[in-house]
Amino acid sequence: MKAVRLYDYHKPPTVEEVPEPVLRGALDVIVQIGGAGVCRTDLHIIEGQWDQVMDPTLPYTLGHENAGWIVEVGAGVTNVAVGDAVIVHPQPSCGLCFPCRCGEDMLCDDAYFPGVSNHDGGMAEYLRTSARACVKLHPGTEPADVAALADAGLTAYHAVRKAIPLLPPGTTAVVQGIGGLGHIGIQALAALTATTIVAVDTNPAALELGSSSGADHIVLADGSHLDHIAEITHGRGADVVFDFVAEGGAEQDAWSMTANGGSLYVIGYGGELRAATADFVLGQRNVVGNSVGSHRELVELMELAHTGRIALHCQRYPLDAAAQAFDDLANERVRGRAVLVP
To answer: What is the pTM of this model?
Structure first.
């Protein structure tokens, strides 16, 4: 089968023929990939930023946002069957450890991260994963249309869901960075809260996507955006800021946009947030980290997608054009999410 393989850091991955995956355990499944999202994390992996964290053995197959059809199941699998269309939770979990028992399976003691950790991912024709990671799609759902929701959508939804108690009517939420995650974050806010949503980005085209996704205000990050946020919030700042950028100075802007008593939800990464401790103490401001969400949240997200309340804006590429997809993402030519389709 064809797969997108990373051989060396700082060098583009290559598409090549590799053996198809095989079942290794009773709860394994083989998924024929219908779509694999291309994530900025993939760019960070190629740049070597995840080397010390995950220490994968190169070469390996990238791809942690996957959806497709079940083609083979292990002897102990009962929740899915051959032919089912599924989206795959990006971190297969054990179901037995304390976090899993608490419903926080994304914090599983034995979780792994295909395409990021030392396990082949789904930028290929087939993927081996666990039955526990699979969520059935509603009939008629095209896997390529939802594949990137497996991580980009789930991470954005997880952050918004945690912030719901902080966002009653009359509050303001700023979404900084209207890319693959940010436009889903806006839709999740619109679906789950009555807050006023403000989209902030350096790119006018991204702001158009933010507006069509449900933002009440759009603000161009051109140096005057902090003043605009102050004007929209009557000088207070936002009750919650969702920072989907968190690098290149955007992390400091996000902190500056957060009101006293407010919360900064950090989803993007790469930068370094610096703030005086007095800002935390006297301003009673919070900083909340966010990564991938739970299995339950992925199920909820699929329900919102099925009813049309959340829709992924994506650009499709054939698997052989993976290098072009990476380049387009790196150079901000992708609106929403790039998806590889074998």
So the answer is: 0.94
